[in-house]
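Incident log, structure service

09:12 report received: a user says their structure output differs between two submissions of the same chain.
09:20 pulled the input from the user's history:
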Amino acid sequence: VFHHIFKGPSSVLVKDGGAVTTRSGNAKLHNMLKVEAEHVAYTFVQCHFSISSRDKWQSTDGAYNYNNTYYRIIRAIQEPFDETWADSLLQWWNMYVLSFGLILRALLTFTKVCIW
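09:34 re-ran on a clean worker, output below:
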């Protein structure tokens, strides 16, 4: 979901290391160099909404409040009880998400070279 939102849907659907670009993703358009608490919270809210029964965006889904959830996630990361947890969480997101495309392309290229 993060890749779809911030890097664009085509970044997830690329096969065999090829590039399919229809336009720049949000990360590039907004000069996003690292994953922040707000990005994690936004991604969570979008994931939750996508599996809900709603077909139209609303800030609440029954008793569930998306706005409260968004801000609670941000606060949990920016004002954590455990600094190590928050640091490792953002470190993982930055390593996995922002590097994932590069790592995947490198692995696919390496696999092609080894197989062919």
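09:41 both user submissions now match this output. Likely a transient worker issue. Closing.
09:42 reviewer note: The helical segments are 2-7, 9-13, 26-29, 37-50, 66-78, 83-115. The chain has six helices and two strands.
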